[in-house]
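Sample pair:
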Amino acid sequence: MNTLKTSKRAAIIAALVEDNSIRATCRMVGVAKNTVLKLLVDVGRACRAYQRKHLRNLPCRRLQCDEIWTFVYAKARNVPPAKLFEPGVGDAWTWVAIDAVAEFRQAVTIAPDNAVAHYNLSVALSKLGRTEEAAAEYREAVRLQQANNAARRTREQSDRPGRPEDQP
């Protein structure tokens, strides 16, 4: 049995994570479709084992729950009668639970000038009773929003024709 080199496995996973299709990944990396599918099964099993072992007694106190919908082969309404009862065909759902504070902290880290991210973090912290942290994030959101408004006014004024002293 052939075994993929680690670099080839990494290239396949990287391509898939970057939202490439399985067929595009096969062409990009130079492997067969079944190779990619088998690797996905292996990675899924490894992720499940890791999560079952390490994701225990997490300190999450407020979760944001959501679902992700997709389809396999075809949307449920478009599945042909011959494949109607075939397992793994049709609608597919994934349910997720995300720690709200951690999610908004990531948003603030990625976009520190985003007033909405700071505001959302302040709301999540407030609902957990962490009022001092919530107040600090709220103040930052207000400061950023005021800066955004000032920048918008300056841009609008510079876009107007005429001399600056003629502006209202």
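The radius of gyration is 25 Å.
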